[in-house]
């Protein structure tokens, strides 16, 4: 029981952040008139901790991020799916401190 507490076999933070990133792709691919999409697209940098956009890939504009998400249909958003998988594979919640 202590071992599971100290080194959990399942990283719930990683899972939640990966799912949030996947959901962001779905939101960005929604029709332009959807309220949820309008709300997310109206957000401005810097995105706050806990925001659905906090783990978004680097982008210069929301238009760039929407283009990364791809269009409707699984064949049109393989890049986003691959990026989410990469995020999940290399996720580190607390990276080691590197002085500036």
Give a topology summary.
Layout lengths: L1 H5 L5 H17 L6 H7 L20 H8 L8 H12 L11
Helix pairs in contact: 2-5
CA(first)-CA(last) distance = 39 Å
Number of helices: 5
Content of β-strand: under 5%
Low-confidence stretches: none
Report the radius of gyration as a whole number of Å. 16 Å
Task: Give the class from helix and strand content and strand pairing.
Answer: mainly alpha
Count of discrete structural domains: 1
The largest sheet is:
none
What string, H for helix and E for strand, traces the elements in order? HHHHH
**How much helix is in the residues?**
40-55%
The shape is elongated
Whole-number average pLDDT? 86
Query: What is the number of strand segments?
Result: 0
């Amino acid at each position: 029981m202590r071992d599971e507490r100290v080194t959990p076999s399942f990283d719930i933070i990683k899972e939640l952040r990966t799912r949030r990133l996947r959901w962001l792709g779905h939101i960005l691919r929604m029709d332009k008139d959807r309220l949820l999409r309008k709300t997310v697209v109206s957000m401005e940098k810097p995105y706050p901790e806990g925001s659905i956009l906090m783990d978004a890939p680097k982008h210069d504009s929301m238009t760039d991020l929407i283009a990364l998400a791809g269009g409707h249909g699984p064949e049109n958003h393989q890049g986003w799916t691959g990026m989410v998988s990469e995020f999940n594979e290399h996720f580190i919640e607390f990276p080691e401190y590197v002085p500036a």
